[in-house]
Structure formats: structure tokens, C-alpha cells
Design brief:
single chain; alpha+beta; Porin; 2 domains; 12-stranded antiparallel beta barrel
């Protein structure tokens, strides 16, 4: 559930499990991308690693992604491949190993433990025969098998009186506003609210990729890239904004020269915001609109008549089809030439594999 709260934009930068993308389906040059988290792969090979001490121990593996991209030409023939390695230099969104996370949870959920003890104290004051009946009902309310509205009126009074004695007015108001609640349900909601706060934390990655030619295993392009994400609005709101900044340096083949070399260099910088819209019921992202501006500069190896500097306005519309499947539609607009380019992609994140490994 927690991983499903992450935005599609975040998952495209750093995956927690496995990810397959069918890229540029509407363009002449198509790509099939596979990305994996190193720790997720280790878990699939050795499920015994799935214990809390190892989860903290293998921080490097959890922050490491690797991927392979197969390129296809217009005839759907193999046109080279790309291998890449990515590492999260800063990953404050990984709440599970954050030092302040456990104290935050303990502080937030401590009131529920206090309420439980207070209820037991109130139960001890009533008749022994009725005490067992009410205790069974209230235990069901605590464990989420019985709603507050289904409790006996006397049991409801015991719960409300216990909360008022502890001055837990927020819990009283919540139960009065939504009697379908249970103590476990409210505690779970508070826990998820804390997790959501980490969706705004910064993520900074560095990536290195090597691309081959289509006819032999020889390097045709090297790419060094870095990307930064940071939420800027309350993540508990129905929509949020993510700041996105990315920089690439490509060193590739200059096709105007005889032979094959790495003498052409292109630097690109892209920045903008991703607008995240959420489902009210589950607080999951269902639609995202990313708008960025990009500047591409050819530092070396410009072709005759080629513009050394190109400015584009870019957009990505991500529609969530299911928990793990996204359909991103990308477009680019060049103000100088008036050209518009569009690409249809399909991305799937295999988060269900994490459930099978117990992660």
C-alpha cells in the first residue's frame, strides 16, 4: 500500500522493485526498457535476506538501480542496446531507515496505547458479567473487526469517556464524525499520514549509461546524468507539486567523421514541475502532468548547419490504469521551429513482487 502512494514520476526516477517500459511506441525508433532495484533482485534470489537488520544493512543496494534498454528501428529490428547504473546519492524518501521515523510513529500512535489502557481501567469498574461482553466488543473495535457504530451503546460510552478523560479530543471528534471507524483503522491512517510526509522529501540520483552500435558491441554513446526531485505542497492534500531538475552530458559518435569515435558532446538541462492529482478514497496518484523547459547545447561536434542551442517546452501526461501500470504520453515543442513531437509509452512497476518476498 505504501509503495502505491508514490508518484509515477518518482518511480520513473528510482524504482523499488522491477520496472518495464515500452518507450516511444508511436515513434519510428522504439525502446524496451527493464530496470531493477539491486536489493529487490537480491531478495528474489535469497528471501532469507528479508529481515529488518539486513534491510538497514544493505542501504547501498536499496539505493541502486540498474537497467537494460533494447532499441528497435522502424522495421522492429535490433538497433543497439543501453546499459545503465543509477545510485541515489540522497534518498530522504526512504522513510523505513530514517532515524526520526520511529520516534514520529511512536509519538503519533502512543495515544492509542494510552486509550486502550484507559478503556481497561473503565471496564474494571463495571459488573463482572457485563465486563466480559463489553471487553470482547471493544477488543473487536481495537482490532478493526467491529466498527464503533456497531458497539453496544454502553461500550461506545466507555470508549468516548476514556478518550475524554485523556483529553484525546481529536479521536472523540473523529469517532463522532465517522462512526464506521475502528481504533486500528484510525491508527493505520495516522501511520500512513506520517509516511506521506516523506513523499515531499528530496531525492537526488546520479546515472551512468553506455549505448552500443546496432551491428557490434562497441560504445557509441556515454551519458552522465543527474536528477533531483522535491515535493513543494502538503502531501496530504488532494494534489501536490514536485520540483524536477535534470542535467545530462552525452558523449557520442560524430557521424560526419570517418570511422567511429566519441568526439561529439551535448549538454542538456531540464527543469519544471510535476502536478500530482490523487484519488480521494485511497490517496493514490491517478493522474500526473509534468511541464518542463529544456536547453540543449552542443559543446563539441556540431554538424554543418545544425543549431548549437535548442530550447524546448516539454510535457508528460501520466495516467494510472492500475496499481502497477501507467500510460505516459510525452510531447516536445520547439518554439523556434514550431515543431511538435509526441510519444506514447507504457510503464509497469512490479510492486506485487515485493509482497511475495515480504518487503
Amino acid at each position: 500500500m505504501v509503495d502505491s502512494l508514490a508518484s509515477g514520476n518518482y518511480k520513473s526516477v528510482l524504482t523499488s522493485y522491477f520496472n518495464i517500459v515500452l518507450d516511444k511506441l508511436s515513434g519510428p525508433d522504439k525502446e524496451v526498457k527493464f530496470n531493477a532495484n539491486l536489493f529487490a533482485l537480491m531478495l528474489k534470489q535469497n528471501p532469507s535476506l528479508n529481515i529488518d537488520t539486513n534491510y538497514s544493512k544493505y542501504t547501498f543496494a536499496r539505493n541502486t538501480n540498474f537497467g537494460v534498454t533494447a532499441k528497435l528501428d522502424t522495421n522492429r529490428k535490433f538497433a543497439g542496446f543501453t546499459g545503465n547504473l543509477k545510485y541515489a546519492i540522497i534518498n530522504k524518501r526512504d522513510y523505513s531507515v530514517a532515524k526520526e521515523f520511529i520516534p514520529l510513529v511512536q509519538d503519533k500512535l502512543n495515544n492509542y496505547f494510552k486509550l486502550h489502557n484507559q478503556i481497561e481501567s473503565e471496564l474494571s469498574k463495571i459488573d463482572l458479567e457485563l465486563r466480559g461482553k463489553f471487553r470482547r466488543e471493544i477488543n473487536g473495535f481495537i482490532r478493526d473487526s467491529i466498527r464503533f457504530s456497531d458497539l453496544d451503546l454502553t461500550a461506545q460510552e466507555i470508549v468516548i469517556r476514556s478518550a475524554k478523560n485523556l483529553k484525546l479530543n481529536d479521536i472523540v471528534k473523529l469517532l463522532q464524525r465517522d462512526p464506521a471507524n475502528s481504533l486500528a483503522k484510525m491508527a493505520r491512517s495516522d501511520f500512513e499520514d506520517i509516511v506521506k510526509l516523506y513523499q515531499n522529501k528530496p531525492l537526488w540520483t546520479a546515472d551512468f549509461a553506455i549505448t552500443s552500435y546496432n551491428d557490434k558491441f562497441q560504445v557509441s554513446n556515454l551519458r552522465f546524468s543527474t536528477e533531483f526531485l522535491k515535493g513543494v505542497i502538503n502531501p496530504n492534500a488532494s494534489s501536490n507539486l514536485e520540483m524536477s531538475v535534470k542535467a545530462n552530458m552525452d558523449i557520442g559518435d560524430d557521424s560526419t567523421k570517418f570511422g567511429r569515435d566519441l568526439s561529439r558532446s551535448i549538454f542538456s538541462f531540464e527543469a519544471g514541475f510535476n502536478w500530482v492529482m490523487k484519488n480521494w478514497n485511497q490517496n493514490q496518484t491517478f493522474l500526473e502532468c509534468k511541464f518542463t523547459a529544456a536547453q540543449n547545447s552542443i559543446a563539441k561536434g556540431a554538424y554543418p548547419g545544425e543549431d548549437k542551442n535548442t530550447f524546448t517546452l516539454n510535457g508528460t501526461l501520466r495516467l494510472r490504469v492500475s496499481n502497477d501500470i501507467w500510460i505516459p504520453i510525452e510531447f516536445k515543442y520547439e518554439p523556434k521551429t514550431g515543431n511538435v513531437f509526441g510519444f506514447l509509452n507504457i510503464a509497469t512497476n512490479f510492486s506485487w513482487l515485493g509482497k511475495r518476498t515480504g518487503e
